[in-house]
Amino acid sequence: MKSFFTIFIICFSITVLSLNLDFEKLYEIERISDYPILLPEGIGFESKAVFNPGTIVVDDVIKLIYRAEDWAGVKKWNGTSSLGIAESKDGILFKKEATPILMPTEVYEIPGGCEDPRIVKVDDTYILTYTGYDGTSAKLCLAYSKDFKKWVKVGPIIKTSRWSKSGAIIPKKIDGKYYMYFGDNDIYLATSKNLRDWQV
What we know:
10% of the residues lie in helices and 40% in strands. By secondary structure, the protein is mainly beta. It has two domains: 1-30, no CATH class; 42-192, 5 Propeller (Tachylectin-2, Chain A). The strands form three sheets. It has a four-stranded antiparallel β-sheet with strand order 1-2-3-4, with no helix packed on it. It has a four-stranded antiparallel β-sheet with strand order 5-6-7-8, with no helix packed on it. The chain has a three-stranded antiparallel β-sheet with strand order 9-10-11, with no helix packed on it. A hairpin with a 2-residue loop joins strand 9 and strand 10 (177-182). The longest helix has 17 residues, at 2-18.
């Protein structure tokens, strides 16, 4: 798998050079502000931290699903995480919802919580991968929604590993299968025909 990414980077670089593009300008990024676009607030689900979001654009509105952490369990498992949502029309000013869209309710999510969201749209359904953390092991989980209000949890989707995180689904079938990259220290590839049953 690592060789695939090496080949991709080499091919991409050759393509950029062959098109006579200014490589430095291609990656030019401008910081608009020294302040974060989201901050922790209050005494509730996002009182300690907000970070590691996944985003999707829906009808010209940026929906930012972010990991929020409270102060529960500090020095044991670091705080309980939930997933909040914020919206923006310009990518700079975001308005947060007052309550999380996904809270830890299952044994594989307690006490650590729901972490590290990634989201895609497949047909008319929003597919969310996230990490369920029980304080000991991380499980890559999946939930889905049609409206961002009601989410249905599918549960852990990588059955062969005690530690799996950060699922990035390619939202179109390739040769009859969906593909998902996942992992933190190493990157793995899983496939599925139905977005629920995944094979590594």
